[in-house]
Amino acid sequence: MTMVAEMGEKSKLIIQNANGSASAKPSHPSQESQDEAKSITRLRREPNMDHRPENYEDVRTDYHPAVFSALERFLPPNLLNARREIKLQHMSDILSSYMPRGERTRAQRHCEYREKIIKHYQPLNRDLYTLNPDRFFVQSFIDAIKENTEESFKRIISEPSPGVYAFSMLQPGFCELLVAEVENFEKWVDVTKFKIMRPNTMNKYGAVLDDFGFYPMLDKLMTEFVTPMATVFFSALLGSTLDSHHGFVVEYSKDRDKDLGFHVDDSEVTLNVCLGKQFTGGDLFFRGVRCDKHVNSETYQE
């Protein structure tokens, strides 16, 4: 899922043992010891449904926290009651073994990049980083999510174009705080000369919210508030199975990026939020669904 927000003069927020050794010759384990070691770390064939897995929502990796909770039920008995960090490391090693070497390196570098930012950046308002429905959302949206029916969602939305839904979601106070937080992050980047990764190759200005601490909040936003609506309105696109997100802010102004051309988002669902202070414009245009052969084709007047 892609989450986008625009702000600015206009900005846009778019809602992923070192062991010493004294022996001169290495000892070779017997076949029995090798088999025993494998049995200790081998995953179960069936999940242990009586086991209550740990909560991994605070873990920042390329894998959804639910993956670790589900995989934990398959761990061998000797690991089920181990410390969370031990289980997490073991499961991460298993998942990484299925990734191509280049992808593993990229994921590791991105993880280190995020950790470096979070270690040094001081948030302006830490309350923004923990989702609080009563402070973030308007009451009509909260009520619709609580009822969680197609009828409740239709009461708060309009459909300006087939498959495009508009509705009130965020409180003005939250939007103001989010704009201030993004501006604070941009100031930190400018002062420290920290080189950040921009949200995409099309925008020169903006930041990935996931990279400076918003991952847990956006993950909860996706699973508990976006997925219920996506399940109803995007069932053909498997809206009920959203498992990753790319939340970022891009900025437009007269002396920066002025607009963004037509493109196709690499996501099943995109949540667009227009943020800002005083500006004109900010319109969002849609031109229907594209087939795989014409994703980047030019448009023509009919």
Automatic annotation (TrEMBL):
Keyword set, alphabetical order: Dioxygenase, Oxidoreductase, Vitamin C
GO molecular function (one): dioxygenase activity
Residues of the Prolyl 4-hydroxylase alpha subunit domain: 162-301
Listed Basic and acidic residues bias regions: 35-56
Stretch list, region Disordered: 1-56
PANTHER family membership: 2-OXOGLUTARATE AND IRON-DEPENDENT OXYGENASE DOMAIN-CONTAINING PROTEIN 2 (PTHR24014)
Record protein name field: Prolyl 4-hydroxylase alpha subunit domain-containing protein
Taxonomic lineage of the native organism: Eukaryota, Viridiplantae, Streptophyta, Embryophyta, Tracheophyta
